[in-house]
Automatic annotation (TrEMBL):
Protein's recorded name: Enoyl reductase (ER) domain-containing protein
Secretion signal, residue range per the UniProt entry: none
Entry-linked InterPro entries: ADH-like_C, ADH-like_N, ER, GroES-like_sf, NAD(P)-bd_dom_sf, Zinc_ADH-like
Transferase listed as a keyword: no
Residues of the Enoyl reductase (ER) domain: 15-237
Gene3D superfamilies: Medium-chain alcohol dehydrogenases, catalytic domain, NAD(P)-binding Rossmann-like Domain
Keywords: Plasmid
SUPFAM superfamilies (UniProt xref): GroES-like, NAD(P)-binding Rossmann-fold domains
One Gene Ontology term of the molecular function aspect: oxidoreductase activity
Keyword Lipid biosynthesis tagged: no
One Pfam short name: ADH_zinc_N
Amino acid sequence: MTNKRMHSYRLTKPGSANVARLTEEAIPTPGHGQVLVHVRASAINFRDLIIANGWYPLPIPDDQVPLSDGAGEVVAVGEGVSRFKKGDRVANSFFPNLYAGKFNQATQQWVAHHEGWLTEYKVVSAEALVGIPDHLSFEEAATLPCAAVTAWSALQGVRAGDTVLTQGTGGVALFALQFAKAMGARVIATTSSWSKAARLAELGADHVLNYKTVEEWGVDFHANVTQGFHRNLTHPVG
Ligand SMILES: NC(=O)c1ccc[n+]([C@@H]2O[C@H](COP(=O)([O-])OP(=O)(O)OC[C@H]3O[C@@H](n4cnc5c(N)ncnc54)[C@H](OP(=O)(O)O)[C@@H]3O)[C@@H](O)[C@H]2O)c1
């Protein structure tokens, strides 16, 4: 593999006009416990924008490959790997060394501690990957690790008939809206734009509030939407 070449994007100085530059480099070889992934799709989250602008709270090494989320196909397997074989379809977990338990000081992140996913080929610890079910495309699977898992976690405990509040139309809120509807909840969504309100309704929102035109939208929400009753109200944004 090592004499073959691939393309990657690498971050430039934060805040510069060209956020990333295209590079050509050697395709890496997987070591013990690692696999080589041919990356077929990667996704951009809010986090990636603040990293590119230099606003992320953790230090980012110079010249790092950006993006925390990706999906692809295993094309080579290192010694000691039994979880995956050549040809398997995989996506990343957001925290590559957090297999159980709670987030702690030793928890690592893509881009901050490991090269990210905006690359053609990538060596990854097999433990940091999950298999993709057949019904998901690479593009669909690549959107899940950061925003969708955040939304999924925020909705733990929600039951059919509950009311869920989603704020805005970012990645986390849009996944939360769709998951909450699938769980049988009623969804109240907020946005700053009427054109986005129409899209929220298409995605299943039962009631949409424009937080720009209704300044005291929280009061309106309690008076007219929940009528003072809610068993479980979830705020999935941030
Ligand atoms: N992505 C993740 O996996 C993740 C993980 C953990 C935490 N978070 C946090 O969760 C938050 C949302 O993440 P995201 O990736 O979905 O962000 P995003 O794509 O940037 O979306 C944020 C949305 O919030 C709405 N908004 C902005 N200002 C607002 C305000 N003053 N009041 C109410 N709504 C406002 C806007 O919706 P409208 O344009 O419709 O008004 C905006 O599109 C961020 O704070 C992020 O740091 C994200």
